[in-house]
Specification:
- Chain B: InterPro entries: 4Fe4S_Fe-S-bd (IPR017896), 4Fe4S_Fe_S_CS (IPR017900).
- Chain B: GO terms for molecular function: iron-sulfur cluster binding; metal ion binding.
- Chain B: Keywords: Iron, Iron-sulfur, Metal-binding.
- Chain B: It comes from Sedimentibacter hydroxybenzoicus DSM 7310.
- The complex is a heterodimer.
- Chain A is α/β, with parallel strands linked by helices.
- Chain A has nine helices and 19 strands.
- In chain A, the strands form five sheets. In chain A, strands 1, 2, 3, 4, 5, 6 and 19 form a seven-stranded mixed sheet that branches.
- In chain A, helix 1 runs parallel beside helix 7 and helix 3 packs parallel to helix 4.
- By secondary structure, chain B is of the alpha+beta class.
- The radius of gyration of chain B is 15 Å and the shape is globular.
- In chain B, strand 4 and strand 5 form a beta hairpin.
- The termini of chain B are far apart.
- Chain B has one domain: Alpha-Beta Plaits.
- Chains A and B meet through helix 5 and helix 9 of A and helix 1 and helix 4 of B.
- The complex binds flavin-adenine dinucleotide (FAD).
- The site of flavin-adenine dinucleotide has 38 residues of chain A, from helix 1, strand 4, helix 3, helix 4 and helix 7.
Chain lengths: 376, 165
């Protein structure tokens, strides 16, 4: 992988975030001949992919049945073949609508680069909830626990209570058990479980109890979490007194949703819309992943929380439209690829879980329609 | 209220109502794949991995899988490929008294052949003991192991896995 020369200051395309969305975007844009710089604040590219040690869902085209970590490796191989320049340990701290980008390398060197086009693929951050004792050591995001076990090989604790039964909560519970921890319970405030049934079933058969309509009341402990008190909720989400239960646990993982990391997109002056099911404020964009600011594109979780499979497809869309907008590929080529990718995206956004995401994406696109100039 | 969405695991009634789950007659036909996939999710590696074309998901990809048991040889490829760890093999006539289950297993440590292990039901409740007959691994399984365990055949509809060791 090419190291940043430190001298270059101007690129056809700068991509912020080297997760599945950013990597896929870079492959499409560089494949069409653009000079691409990919920036990530981490010391390794791949975003969330390298901690997804489980086999992915989907179809063959989406590499279903392959572990996330191996999908990441395949993407990295492609970026290497295309000699894409990757700048790691580099944080993008700001950008302007005229596409000046402020970066800080290795937490030391501050400089400015400019780009013809910018694709923002910064992903998302984990939500938190407050309860008595939430500041005790041992309370952490489920994603953080996943990073600890699967990337850093450190067990955050021996007995974990998971709050949230969505896919992240149940997958991380399974992986914590694989890493050698015990999961005391999975607690869900809603009356029904959120994650795919196959995921809940595999932790249920490992003996993990689920508590729906329950939440954490407080964490007890002197210097760290030692016990967790949960309580039942009524249909108005009010705590029902007298239903408290106490579990021994040294770790509480919070899997209570993700929020798109949109700060850079606000700075650029893009229009937003609020869609709760997509994680909150998301940038308005069109089917080519263009925002309302000319030359700024988005892809992946930052454009609405979904999955790695959709993030990669959106990254490809952004990469292709950038190449098209730079006149590197013609109309017919671009439209053909864009259509193919949309067919795949539609197949990922169907069924009882995907339908909701499709409706939400349609809303974002509808808002985009009126605001974004059409392809010339 | 659905058991799957409340306690995490499907009830036997929910399973029987799904198209991939065998009938009592089906179980008698030999070592067969038992598919416990009752929710429409966009996923089809079971279909694309089956070397006999016995499993069908089709279009849209959210359809529940169906299986033509006359084509199923009990090879176990779908068992390792299913990202949901939702398929196992069951042979209720392994011998006169025992059935044999083949489960996908992704925990460490692994049991050894001939070990006595505890078998559990879908809620993780211990049901009976069994004997590890064989452990299969292959590069194509991508780290997942297949563990074959024999046990008292009267529990065949309850047993889903082994207790972690
Ligand atoms: C527990 C869990 C299980 C999952 N399982 C699946 C699954 O089975 N199948 C599936 O399809 N998806 C799954 N996902 C979802 C999937 O991981 C994400 O949807 C996907 O990673 C989003 O890709 P992305 O490229 O948009 O963002 P990310 O992967 O989050 O990448 C964003 C990158 O941007 C970088 N970045 C952010 N801000 C800056 C900045 N200012 N400067 C420089 N760099 C920056 C970050 O360091 C990061 O590398 C799972 C997620 C979790 C948490």
């Amino acid at each position: 992988m090419g190291e940043a020369s430190g001298k270059m200051n101007n690129y056809d395309v700068v991509i912020v975030g080297a997760g599945p969305a950013g990597l896929a975007a870079s492959i499409e844009a560089a494949g069409a001949g653009a000079r691409v710089l990919l920036i990530d604040e981490n010391n390794k590219p791949g975003g969330q992919l390298f901690k997804q040690i489980h086999k992915f869902f989907g179809s063959r085209e989406h590499k279903a049945g392959t572990r996330g970590i191996n999908i990441g490796t395949e993407l990295l191989d492609d970026t290497e073949k295309l000699n894409i320049e990757v700048m790691l340990n580099t944080e993008v701290c700001g950008l302007t609508p005229d596409k000046k980008i402020w970066i800080i390398e290795n937490k030391e060197i501050s400089r400015e680069i400019t780009a013809g086009k910018i694709i923002i693929a910064t992903g998302a951050y984990e939500n938190s909830v407050q309860f008595d004792g939430w500041e005790l050591p041992g309370v952490m995001g489920a994603g953080a626990a996943q990073t600890m076990i699967n990337l850093n090989r450190v067990l955050p604790g021996h007995k974990v209570l998971m709050l949230g039964s969505g896919n992240v909560g149940v997958i991380v519970s399974y992986q914590l058990m694989q890493a050698g921890a015990e999961v005391a319970a999975i607690v869900e405030a809603a009356p029904t479980l959120g994650g795919y049934g196959v995921h809940t079933a595999k932790v249920a058969r490992a003996g993990v109890p689920f508590y729906t309509s329950h939440t954490i009341k407080r964490a007890h402990g002197k210097n760290r979490v030692e016990r967790v008190e949960i309580v039942q909720l009524d249909s108005n989400w009010k705590e029902i007194e007298g239903t408290e239960k106490i579990f021994d646990a040294d770790t509480i993982c919070l899997a209570v949703g993700l929020t798109p990391m949109v700060e850079l997109i606000w700075l650029a002056g893009c229009k937003f819309t609020f869609i709760g099911s997509m994680g909150g404020y998301v940038p308005v964009h069109d089917r080519y992943m263009r925002t309302t600011v000319d030359g700024i594109y988005v892809a992946g979780d930052v454009a609405g929380i979904e999955e790695a499979s959709t993030a990669m497809e959106e990254g490809r869309l952004a990469g292709i439209s950038v190449a098209y907008d730079l006149n590197l590929i013609d109309d017919a080529q671009a439209e053909k690829r864009i259509e193919e990718i949309w067919t795949k995206l539609d197949s990922l956004r169907c069924g009882q879980f995907g339908e909701k995401r499709k409706t939400a994406k349609d809303r974002i696109l509808e808002e985009g329609e009126g605001m974004i100039l059409c392809h010339a | 209220m659905s058991c799957l969405k409340k306690c995490g695991a499907p009830s036997i009634e929910e399973l029987r109502a799904s198209p991939g789950f065998p009938t009592e007659e089906d179980y008698k036909t030999g070592n067969i794949a038992v598919i416990e996939c009752i929710e429409q999710i966009p996923c089809n590696p079971c279909e694309t991995s089956c070397p006999r074309g016995a499993i069908n998901v089709g279009n849209p990809i959210t359809n529940l899988p169906t299986i033509d048991l006359s084509k199923c040889t009990g090879c176990g490829i779908c068992v390792v490929k299913c990202p949901g760890i939702a398929i196992h093999l069951m042979d209720i006539n392994y011998n006169e008294d025992s059935a044999m289950i083949t489960i996908p297993y992704e925990y460490l440590p692994l049991p050894q052949a001939n070990d006595t292990v505890t078998l559990v039901d879908r809620m993780g409740k211990e049901v009976c003991e069994g004997k590890v007959e064989k452990i299969l691994s292959s590069k194509a399984y991508d780290l997942t192991k297949l563990i074959k365990v024999s046990f008292d055949k009267k529990y065949y509809e309850e047993i889903i896995s082994i207790k972690r060791i």
